[in-house]
Amino acid sequence: MRANLERSAQPPDPESNDGRVSSRIDVAEALATVSAEDRAILLLRYQEGLNYQAIAEITGCPAGTVASRLSRARERIKELLKRGYDLADENTLAAHPIMN
Question: Which of 6, 30, 50, 66 could form a disulfide with 54 if both were Cys (CB 3.0 to 4.6 A apart)?
């Protein structure tokens, strides 16, 4: 299990549908932007469903450190996803047939 958590997430190929470049950022790409330790904590919490104490035991960090790393990593990913989708929405609105 630990080896799977330490692998870095590979960002997806930005080429999509008909060769257009996608400006959206997906979750795997956002996960790749946080440190391996923070990514492991995120995956232990949300993929494995573990509580802070269990994560602390696995990672060897105090539960308070787990909580702060989890909070910081969630905020980082949230901002990346928000910016990526806001940008994509702006780009698609300009190209929408009704808007022309």
Answer: 50
